[in-house]
Model the fold of this input.
Amino acid sequence: TYAIAVALVLTVKEDAFLLVVPLGVWVALRLDRRKGLWTMFAGFSAAIVTMYLIMRPLTGVPTRNGWRVPFGGVEGFLRETVTAPWNVVQYFLDGDKVTYLFQMTAPYLGLFLLSAGLAAVSSGVLFVNVLSTYWYQYSIDYHYSIVAVPALLFASIHAISRLSPSLRGRAVAALVVVTCTTSVLWSSHNLSFEAREVPPGDNPAVAAGHEILDDLPAQVSASLYDPLVPHAAHRSGLWFFPNPFRAHLYGVDQSLEGTRLPAADTVEYVVLPKFSLPHMQAGWDDEKDAFEVIS
Done:
């Protein structure tokens, strides 16, 4: 069962080794040395295979995320760490990154520190997230963070189990109170202070979006408003706006960011909301003369 679980985790993404290798270290030190070493070997091997035998032949580079490393990439980061370490310290002390770490750990009331070895399984993921220049990685709103949650949770549970019987109930009660409080403060459910509105299926905007996609001719090249793209992703020749007019999050790095891609000349349809965000409107203003506007 353990081997199957590790294998499934490693099939998720090329950077799953950031979780699996620390898990192997903990297993080797606390449970089964041989099993832990095999876990670490599997983690490193999977990373090498996915990055160098799968991704590089497909994209030309082993990873598309090198641009997210500060100070000009891995080499620049290491150089800055040696030559100007205070700059690196200041980078990690950025307010958003400190807030991110607080939001990731506060719900557990620090109990995971009583089982620090197990909690450290999440250390690789958390380090890479706060290292990144890509804001999504150090925001709890996005999937990058959920990977670190299980080890912190299990470490907290393990820590409580090691407390005396008289303290366990109090620790669980305190954990429930703090977890519920932080959930209300910064989660996105309906009871939160920052509740995120999710329109129902019969919302007029949702219905209009489906109607527009149904009317979009088959086998045409089109640039769509981002939320519409997943509903048409089964088709070929689609881009999420402002691509391909202005490259955004396109290619193996940021070298093409903001440039006009050759495919822009093949786009026949553009679907945007009537009231666009400023950056979207600016991109559309540059291209709208080439299209017939239908509102």
Summary: The mean pLDDT is 89. The radius of gyration is 23 Å. The longest helix spans residues 33-59. The first strand starts at residue 222 and ends at 224.
